[in-house]
Design brief:
Structural class: alpha+beta
Order of helices and strands: EHHHEEEEHEEEEEE
Oligomer: single chain
Protein name: Lipid-binding SYLF domain-containing protein
Distance between the termini: 37 Å
Keywords: Signal
Radius of gyration: 18 Å
Strand content: 35-45%
Largest sheet: 9 strands, mixed
InterPro entries: Ysc84_actin-binding (IPR007461)
Length: about 210
């Protein structure tokens, strides 16, 4: 059973800890001195993170046709997921239209069911058409309960169809297709989970100056 949760609600839940209310005393002068440096360093780190994630996905033969033909895509370098009975996922990503960064997105999912362990993975969502792209960037997009993703692993080629997705090693004839205008790929970063499903993932969207709403 899936329980819907907005990205902001789930983010707050995941961030809650005994140290959440601890405050450090910092003078306004120190904050002013650190702001510029922190902004520049975080920006460079973020850019490098997304570039590295996209390069990893581009190394998978199954994704190459999508990078070449998709109208746009959203990439999430790290989606954290884990739980014992109650599992939650949260990730921060960027949305691209034909290679141009047009805004940021957050991913959130809360589910109750048989789950074990923890898993961190990267996720990319390709949009087949302009309509699919705008459906995602509406700011309130959510995958249905039956949504599935193609799991990519080293040495394995991916295959997706209208009824599901999986990875098969040594299958040179494998292919991936759009389902309802979108194709989703994940790449595990480590950990173990009884079930990893993208069903119920909800997304927010915050456009930047490159975004064209028309």
């Amino acid at each position: 059973m899936l329980v819907k949760a907005t990205p902001y609600f789930l983010a707050a839940c995941l961030a809650l800890s005994p140290n959440a209310f601890a405050a450090e005393e910092t003078t306004s002068e120190e904050k002013a001195q650190d702001t510029s440096h922190d902004s520049n360093s975080k920006g460079a780190e973020s850019s490098s993170k997304y570039e590295a994630t996209l390069n990893k996905f581009k190394q998978a033969p199954a994704t190459l046709p999508f990078f070449e033909n998709a109208y746009g895509y959203a990439v999430f370098p790290t989606v954290g997921k884990g739980g014992f009975g109650i599992g939650g996922s949260y990730g921060e990503g960027q949305v691209y239209q034909q290679g141009m960064h047009v805004g940021d997105s957050t991913l959130a999912q809360l589910s109750i069911g048989l789950q074990l362990g923890a898993q961190a993975y990267s996720e990319i969502i390709f949009f087949e058409s302009k309509a699919d792209y705008y459906a995602f960037t509406s700011g309130s997009f959510e995958f249905g309960a039956q949504a599935s993703a193609v799991a990519l692993t080293l040495g394995a080629s991916a295959q997706a169809g209208s009824t599901g997705a999986g990875a098969q090693a040594g299958d040179k004839q494998s292919q991936a297709t759009y389902i309802n205008g979108m194709a989703v790929f994940t790449m595990t970063k480590g950990g173990l989970m009884y079930e990893a499903s993208i069903g119920g993932q909800g997304f927010s969207f915050a456009p930047n100056n490159n975004y064209d709403a028309n």
